[in-house]
Amino acid sequence: MGTADNETLSPAPSSPAPSFSQRREWSQDQAISYLMAQGIENPDCLSLAAGFVDFETLPVELSRKAYAELLDDPQTARKYLQYGTTAGSDRLRDQLIKHLAKLEETTVEELGIDRNQLVLTTGSQQLLAILADVLFDPGDICLVAAPTYFVFLGVLAGVGAEVITVEGDEGGIKVDALEAQLEQLKQEGILSRVKMLYLVSYYENPTGVSVDADRRQPIVDLVTKYSTDHQIVLLEDAAYRELRYDGPKLPSLWSCDPTHSQVVLAQTFSKSFAPGFRTGFGVLPKSLVQPVIDRKGNEDFGSSHFNQNLIATVLERGWYEDHVFEVCENYQKKRDAMLAALAEEFSDLQQEVSWFVPHGGLYVWLSVPEKLETGFNSELFAYATNVEKVMYVPGQLCYPHAERKNQMRLSFGVLNPDGIRLGIARLANSIRHSLK
Amino acid sequence: MGTADNETLSPAPSSPAPSFSQRREWSQDQAISYLMAQGIENPDCLSLAAGFVDFETLPVELSRKAYAELLDDPQTARKYLQYGTTAGSDRLRDQLIKHLAKLEETTVEELGIDRNQLVLTTGSQQLLAILADVLFDPGDICLVAAPTYFVFLGVLAGVGAEVITVEGDEGGIKVDALEAQLEQLKQEGILSRVKMLYLVSYYENPTGVSVDADRRQPIVDLVTKYSTDHQIVLLEDAAYRELRYDGPKLPSLWSCDPTHSQVVLAQTFSKSFAPGFRTGFGVLPKSLVQPVIDRKGNEDFGSSHFNQNLIATVLERGWYEDHVFEVCENYQKKRDAMLAALAEEFSDLQQEVSWFVPHGGLYVWLSVPEKLETGFNSELFAYATNVEKVMYVPGQLCYPHAERKNQMRLSFGVLNPDGIRLGIARLANSIRHSLK
Ligand SMILES: Cc1ncc(COP(=O)(O)O)c(C=O)c1O
Ligand SMILES: Cc1ncc(COP(=O)(O)O)c(C=O)c1O
Fold first, then answer.
1. Does CATH place domain B80-318 in 3.80.10.10?
2. B103 vs A73: CA distance, rounded Å
3. ipTM of the complex, rounded to two decimals
């Protein structure tokens, strides 16, 4: 028998495929999968695409010290090796309240939250996913700035939510555009389907921009105003909050909601400490605590208790702040290297190519002429990866329906300054080539 | 104004409640929440209820050695502190293939799976939850043995699945009962809604029983036979597999499906090593790999990479097997203590009280006369917790609709032999009191 015959016979009649859920259909074809596949297929490329954090500043020494402490006394060590609770370690949650008070430049008393409003998750990603689960029925609406964090777009697709984008600029989401959109939804009679406004408030992934200080209170007020028959949850994703290099110190959106009943604040130790411990957290309005815990109870009934205690130790001993300072110093150099390289390499293309200057985070958002597409199937992407050997994230992944195709996300997370300079030079060559 | 007035006014008109998803409704009122609340309200009780593992044998020394190795070389240490992949560390997955080959008493070659069929999760719980997500639409059917692992019943409720129970006995689920049930579903024309058969195949939580060796192949064959228009997935939850104290060495259900296209094998390091690292895994039929990874990509895009590497080191260095041996020796003593105490304390109640003898795991399943209810609201539970100061898990939690109310799950996980003896004495007093 020939191969063709064999193939015809091969799916044994005894094993048909499983029949999947609607949710499985919705969670297919994620941008992140393409991206990772591209990364694997192009290992020889300089990566301006990878979402990894800087290797050099990962806390090897601090982790060693913290582990030594955690395992020093067998009696307490065993507690850390045991199951914790679904919401997470009290020790870490208590430390987090102090830490938040510092970030918010206030006192623990003024902060006015209690430990039970904090839920520790597997990265902050898990918090985003759980909130989507407990809020969205298929067809419910999430408002987002455009572009936005593409993994969250995948989460929203995965629960069958409809995404409505609101325009932004260098100051983040535009207040008047948000108001117009909410008003329109009200006029259309579908405000009842709007469950959430999602914003990456600091040094956004992918644009690097932050929501301007003077837009913050108005945004919270708008969400409150349009929360008539039910509360529209404002999910403030502050993943990059602590990676601030210059520019103003911005108050959180969360702090603009003094009753803490409307805004969820999501943060993570992935960027400021180490993603390998997968520890993030949410500060939740009281109404959301039990729903989130119930869902997490089903998902895993608690993230790594040991890792939570490791981070508690690092905070408790005062090691964290110095570490973050060092991390920021290092990223600042890398950001500066990227900005300088962009200015230099694109000096002849000032009309065609533009970018935002980020004051923190890991990303620079680059726009090229409209006619130049950047997607995985574009000529530019092919040339960049195959000829120049440099990879970026196509900007269209960061729009729910690939609305704009002439942008890209550049990361200075993983390369060192020399690598960044070389990467930008290669990128400039690619763009110049494709513009011809 | 009096308190009542204040309460009437207190929900500020500016902050109505969020409007939750259907899924949030379904994930409310979980047994585990009641149980944890009871545990917290009764801290002075001896706990035969807690699902914790033994404290004494938690691997403090091994963890210390493993961490030292992981952090020894800064270059590799940084890799472990970085993000991993969604599916998990290649290093651990390679070790797991070797480990599985040993458990299955075969060679890596004979085992015939590749690394990509292994997915590492946050405990094995996360794998169970993800499988439920990708398989069940509301109203779809899961077959389970009754009683079964109550947290998974919560997961099924959370996705709106319908649970159909199949009778079991000391040999696990009954083959003829399973066949009758499948045939009935076929006759009713709703076989297309049956997505999964879930079985805890070794030393079940809650009954302590295993599926008999001679029932294993017939069960797999039945599932294959009734997988006509789509594949019914057999989820083999082997959480307690490695905690074997005596009795026969049982082949996995997974090994009865030599093409590995029908059975998912879920295992965990929570019971045999340390739950604090939250590391479990699944061996998946190829058809399920991408669906599971896509969903996990949304949920957290990877569990703790550092913890995965810690366990890889423990396996790689050959430390794991000795550790499991020690853990089993210790549990065996505790199981023996519980069985001896039961025999002694209930010697006058031999007609009324019965239990299964477990050959592994952490649990003994006790039945009392039908008229004696064991639930949270029963007289027995109140007397046990308030007067005798002992806690157990009411058996009805382990049935989807609390079908039977005269059973209880006793755990020898956390107490030492003296505590176990005292706990059983108190329990016997409580039962004797309530039988009067
Ligand atoms: C904007 C944003 N939010 C959340 C996350 C989730 O990260 P983690 O789960 O590691 O906290 C990321 C990671 O890249 C991110 O960029
Ligand atoms: C039968 C069974 N399956 C799965 C689990 C999940 O445990 P883990 O997520 O720690 O692997 C448990 C834990 O108690 C269990 O009893």
1. no
2. 33
3. 0.95
